[in-house]
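If you are new to this repository, start here. Below is one unmodified record pulled from the training split, so you can see the exact layout before writing a loader.
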Amino acid sequence: MKTAISTNLLDELQTTLAHGNVARRVETLRRVTDLFLNNAVDYTGEQIAVFDDVFTCLIETMETSAKQLLAQRLGPAANAPPRIVRALAFDDLIEVASPVLSQSECLDDPTLIENARTKSQSHLLAISVRKTLSNAVTDVLVEHGDGEVVKSTASNPGAEFSEHGYTTLLSRARHDDSIATCLGMRTSIPRHHYLKLISKASAAVRARLETANPQFAADVSVAVQEATRRARSSPAAVNRQTIIAHGLVRSLFEDGRLDEDQVVAFADASKFDEANAAISCLANVPVAVAETMMVESRTEGIFILAKVANFSWSTVKAIINMREKLSGATLSESGADRATYERLRPSTAQQVLRFHRMQQVASLSGG
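And here is the target side for that same chain:
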């Protein structure tokens, strides 16, 4: 212990813990904190444990301001004593908890998740601004957080999201334009979630504006369609991962190595960008047309594309399963779907597809 804390300070600490008043405890706490931070990189695990015991004893009767200052000083320390950091993080007062929740590297995912499940919305908000957030933590934040917490989490460039997390964000974005905006600005959002966000947000905007101004309903509809068209074609709408996926599939197609089996492989691996690009190649339609039919329709759009590409039902089912899995829906089995697909004539599918192509050309020309 004396290798970490000097003899004079050790004597003072023993006296303070036994007889010291609050003021003396605060001064001793300051000195111990100075000592730790000035040499923290050199301490062994055993020495850090000693400091942990000392800090824990000292703050038992401390007032808020002293705890807050300790949290502010220990928050950025990479190897701060773990027990005292946890105690500060779970303090009911956010002024104490926030500095460590938002910064401390000593808090692991299970601790952050426990905190997010049991503490206040202010605690969740502090967690949401951490430099990095795993998808296990963001799953809890977007599920249990209020609007402010969700917006903060969605705006954090260091946050990762699972498929479930993105699905939850999309659900909440339907009722909150600010959440939808934060989500749409993420450069890392997977393409299929981005397209679904546009589709759902556009519908919500249209409904609100038409209700407020029924005499302008037709104009509102045109305006929303134009906004959607611009969003789809903007550079921000297609991230680097999507561009790489499209390029890979195009290469396979040009080399004669893209077939129905490859589409199934992409679908089984939940690779939306690759599967969508492969379908567009094999159905001979632009990627944007395939995206619209894959995301905004129910199963009819998939049926049309698949029939033009001459896919078997097993391939169609793999595509449907991929879309349902990515959207968080329960996988369903429908004999009616298969019967509908098998009754669909290739000539009818071609006619519908030509209509979709015409719509895209009109939208791109602004007509």
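Two things worth knowing about this chain: The chain has three domains: 1-94, 108-176, 240-364. The chain is about 70% helix and 0% strand.
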